[in-house]
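Narrative of activities, Objective 1.

The group set out to show that a structural description can be obtained from nothing but a protein's sequence at a throughput compatible with the screening campaign. Below is one input-output pair from the validation batch, recorded exactly as produced.
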Amino acid sequence: MSTQSPVRVGIFVFDDAEELDVVGPYEVLAWWAQHSELKPEVVTFSRDGNGVRCAKGLRLVPDHSAEDVGPLHVVVYPGGKGTRPLAKDSEHLAWVRRLRSTTALLTSVCTGALVYAAAGLLSGRPATTHWSALDELAQLDPTVLIDAEARFVDDGDVVTSAGVSAGIDMALHLVARLDSVDEARAVRRGIQYDPAPPV
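Output recorded for this entry:
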C-alpha cells in the first residue's frame, strides 16, 4: 500500500528569491496540508539542495535538491531579483522545460513568470507578473497575453500571479482548485488573511 501523498507541491527556492513570494504560498499550502483530509505534501527544494539567501537576507534550508525532490504534481516558482540571471541561464531553462514535461501544474509568483517566459512556457498564453516587470515579460515573449490587472491568471496547467502578496491569493486559489472552496475558506480563516488597504 502506497503511503505517498496524493498531491505533492514543491516550492523552488534560489538565491535572491523574494521572501514573501516563497513564504506566503508556503504558509497557505502548509496550513492546508496540516488540516485537509487529502493530506497533501508541501516541500521546498533548491537546485543543489543547499541553503539559499533570499532578496532581503532571509536564509532558507530546503528539504531537497532538484535531483532528489521526486515527482511533484505542482511547482511554485517564486520571483525576486534572482530570477533575472536564471532567465538567462540556458541550463536552468532546459531544466524548467523538463519540469514542464513531468509536472501537471506549474505556478509562478511575481517575476517567476519571467523564467517561464524565457523557457518558452507562456507563448500565446495569458499570464501576469509584478506590475513593474510587465514590460520585461513582453520583451521576453511578445506573444504572451499579459493581464496587467489580475491578481493571478489560471490558464489550466500554468498559473501565474502578480507581485509578492498576490502569491497568497494564488495559493488560496490552488487550494480551492485542488481541494474545495470550503477548504480554501478554512485556510484563509486559519491564517487570518483578510486584506484591507490600510490607507
